[in-house]
Amino acid sequence: MDRIALADHASQYAQQINTIRGEAIDELPLRTFEPVAEVRGLADTWWRGPDSLIAIYTGGAECFGAPRLRVARVYGGLDEWGRNGG
Question: Is the pTM of this model over 0.70?
Fold first, then answer.
């Protein structure tokens, strides 16, 4: 599954989607999540937790040297099908 397909899948099954920007991303509890290696890109990473997926996009921030442009989307309220796609 590529990252665009995963984003589409997660958005269809999530009960809640939150967008977080800039330094607030550093507060996400990623140590309780596992990386989704299958969709790891140069400028984005995905993390899988017990009932959610987190996508962190850093491309614009890196390109423009502006950390405030980092964006994370938290797809919450997912069951196993929503987290894993099967």
Answer: yes
